[in-house]
Amino acid sequence: MIKRLFALALLALMLPAALAAEPAGKLTTESIIKRTLEGRLSGIKIESVTKTPYLGLYEVRVDNEILYTDEKMNYIFSGNVIDAKTMQNLTEKRLRELSGIKWGDLPLDAAFKTVHGNGKRTLAVFSDPNCPYCKRFEKDLAKIDDVTIYTFLYPILSPDSHEKAKAIWCSSDKSKAWSELMLNGKVPAAAQCDTPIDRNLALGRKYRINGTPTLIFASGERVPGAVTAEQLEKLFAQNAGK
């Protein structure tokens, strides 16, 4: 990333001239920024350029990162924009929005379902059976009531993760086998059956799910990493009205 930023800094000096060469009225500022950056920096894919509501900055989305540039593109900024009144990290909020996954796009048949209480709230979790953070999260998740959990087995840590995930899916009671493994360390017996694990891995690559656990709420918001029971309740509350 450091090398990329040095390249972007040098490129910023050339952008005004590139803009001047374009026919007036044919391209928007956003499209010029996108085309110029992609043309000058081979191998970098600019996913989107969007004008922000603050400081006249333009948001440049590169992979899972956000950069900023001013309207004349004299400068390129890397870092977080924070609202000084609320102290909210606007860059982090925007990244969460951009990384969201529509609930309807999740193939729920590729996950197993666990219901706590009345199950009125819904949560999808991408999890690896060998992930220590997943195990910690499962202990907190067990404290949460009135939720339906869809667990997508996502073995990305090791070949052994894949074998354990397969054994979980092939168990007669997937939810129980998962709980026994994650909470009590009891590994299910190896078994053979058709599993959706390869589909889950392809789905994760599509949505750039690079770590476990990754949580998806019904609103589409994605939250990477383990959270506590208290934090999870707050996230449910925040997503209830979305």
Could you please describe the fold and organization of this structure?
With 242 residues, the protein is α+β, with helices and mostly antiparallel strands. The chain folds into 2 domains: 2-98, no CATH class; 103-240, Glutaredoxin (3-Layer(aba) Sandwich). Helices cover 38% and strands 19% of the residues. Strands 5-7-6-8-9 form a 5-stranded mixed sheet. A 4-stranded antiparallel sheet has the order 1-2-3-4, with helices on one face. Strand 6 (121-127), helix 5 and strand 7 form a beta-alpha-beta unit. The longest helix has 12 residues, at 29-40. The model is unreliable at 5-22 (pLDDT under 50).
Topology of helices and strands:
Elements: H1 2-12, H2 15-20, H3 29-40, E1 46-51, E2 58-62, E3 65-69, E4 76-78, H4 90-98, E5 112-116, E6 121-127, H5 132-141, E7 147-153, H6 159-169, H7 174-184, H8 197-206, E8 214-217, E9 222-224, H9 229-240
Keywords:
Glutaredoxin, 9 helices, 242 residues, 2 domains, four-stranded antiparallel β-sheet, alpha+beta
Cα end-to-end separation: 34 Å
Radius of gyration: 22 Å
Query: Quick one: CATH superfamily of the largest domain?
Result: Glutaredoxin
- Proportion of residues in helical segments: 25-40%
CATH level-3 fold name of the largest domain: Glutaredoxin
Shape: elongated
Helix and strand run? HHHEEEEHEEHEHHHEEH
Task: Outline the low-pLDDT stretches.
Answer: 5-22
CATH class label of the largest domain = Alpha Beta
Number of strands: 9
Tally of helical segments? 9
Order of neighbouring strands in the sheet with most strands: 5-7-6-8-9
